[in-house]
């Protein structure tokens, strides 16, 4: 009998958790409202409210175990939110780099810009395709660009501590197809000179990238003349004149990609069809939004999987901790609960009250954990070698409201698991023998 | 040791509580085992004796820049160099361009530089004789169900062939197996002939991605590295030579600050664990107050009682921790296999066990200290009277 009840509880638990994970926020809100109405309106609801009130008021006498539930849940939520915020920040940085009204053309079959090579002829042909926006003079807004990597000393590192930064060789059009990019210090480089403008994040990552200083690319001296900001992945790059970069890297007149401004987002299909139909070209075209989102996909997925795995293991640990504490709490309050039952309180209010108490503690822990994660990690900078790029990519953790909400849902789930079994035990306490222990 | 039974009985006096606490400890150390394996795999990448004996020479400009193949003969003549091989990045993908496969186009003597990679004599022979032959890492072959003798097409995401086609045809002639865990990623690699590659594509034009040099004397590695770099100083293809160890460590550092991430997670986990087990031990001692008083009455010294309580808490942690770490060593190979070769984690090593055991004992002593102190100071008369 007891075994069957436990089995039933486990099944119930599994079902509730599955539904809970899938439940969107309006569903949760409806559930909470429904529950509040039940508490206020029905006789059993009011009984539950008063039993919960007694339980909550005695929390202070059980400070140790209450803290275990709270801190345990806070730890789970904090770590989970921080790890997911890392994945979110990474994906967000790359997503922001692209837009729906610009497209990138690369050699067919190239997984990323660095791997693509477009010869001189293609670079002349591509901008003539239909669907590309044109300036006042009627010239197409298309920017052929060369993407290579450069080794530079890492800021704050030892003499031999070099990192890789993505170097983009561009022409004047590069600024026009990316209007969000602003020079925040110094000036743009001059065509034909060994001058660099550096992204804000690149400047923070690498030594010597300050306006007025020179850096060595291989055996050549390049001077840094400006800093740009764009708030996206481009900020981790350094830019120079395309022809000068090409000669340093012995790339001749070839380029890696052509970024074009579309006449309007719907013109993409026209452009794609035209490029595919041109027998002179073997190229792939994609909107930059899709291209950059795709680059982040793999890594973001891995980070998310790691976050959820770590969160799961921690949550299991925390749930056992909560179970332990609530069993102890129920045991300590056995007489009190038996008395309530004796004077006419039903089993259900006792079950709900114990669960409510656990879930409130877990919720408080979840809020605490989310808050700590938000305070510590929102905007926290990290860097990695991004997939599809050849340089260090800086990104900032984003603790979004959605993540905090997910964290709270996890907290409540832990509270539910931790409260269910002790609650059932509390309700099943034989009244007579519990009272006799006086 | 003669009190072990007593400690064991005390520990399982309240079964539910002890088992629930144990499960929490197990979860914490399971996580510790897995994360520490990740950290170790990052730390130990390239940290083998072979890694210190090999030098990697790449372009000083950046790792994507190539070097002329003529450097091969020059490097071979540098005093202290035992042998030199070279390789190029092929950028292969199988079936789908996003299904990327680590693939190098290598010189004929490339494998001689890597004694830790096991390739059967027949496979070596077949590889030498087949122009389009490739050697495939075991894990990779398993992932795609490749067999020796299979003809497979690989797309290169960087190098099209002369006719513009991206698809290259290869014959699988043998498998590679890494004897040493630190070279484990060779199990996922494809090696092809540099000659076949160079002749097949118009884009490479006799260049080499990087050189791998074995030095005769490890202590001379720095000097040899400088001598190699001096060969091309002030040319348009300056080089940068590092030991494989240093180069790998540098890559790992650029990937992510794993130490910090693992450290913060474990900090949160152990802080929680401290609180949780501490609470359990406090409860355990509180409800046994009268039993402890009886022990003292029948002649146990205050110190002995303190030691009993401390031993109990250490036993709780070590028991749970050991199960957790054991569980991690069982789970890690499953996770590695399940990821289809994406993750290649070493099992829980002796270092992790040592660190884990130290943590278990330390946490055990820490959480045992307050209740043990309480047990030692216990006044027999008060305790027996229930005051």
TrEMBL record, chain A:
One Pfam family it belongs to: MacB_PCD
GO CC terms, sorted: plasma membrane
Ranges for domain MacB-like periplasmic core: 66-276
Transmembrane segments: 67-86, 302-330, 342-364, 371-390
Gene Ontology molecular function: transmembrane transporter activity
Annotated membrane topology: Multi-pass membrane protein
Domain ABC3 transporter permease C-terminal: start-end pairs: 310-430
Location(s) in or outside the cell: Cell membrane
Transmembrane recorded as keyword: yes
Alphabetically ordered keywords of this record: Cell membrane, Membrane, Transmembrane, Transmembrane helix
Name assigned to this protein: ABC-type transport system
Organism of origin: Mizugakiibacter sediminis
From TrEMBL, chain B:
Transmembrane stretches, start-end: 258-278, 305-332, 352-369
Species this chain originates from: Mizugakiibacter sediminis
Name of this protein: ABC-type transport system
Compartment(s) of residence: Cell membrane
Domain MacB-like periplasmic core: 23-230
Record flagged with keyword Transmembrane helix: yes
Recorded topology in the membrane: Multi-pass membrane protein
One GO cellular component term: plasma membrane
Domain of life assignment: Bacteria
Domain annotation ABC3 transporter permease C-terminal: ranges: 265-380
InterPro entries: ABC-4/HrtB_transporter, ABC3_permease_C, MacB_PCD
Record Pfam families: FtsX (PF02687), MacB_PCD (PF12704)
Alphabetic keyword roster: Cell membrane, Membrane, Transmembrane, Transmembrane helix
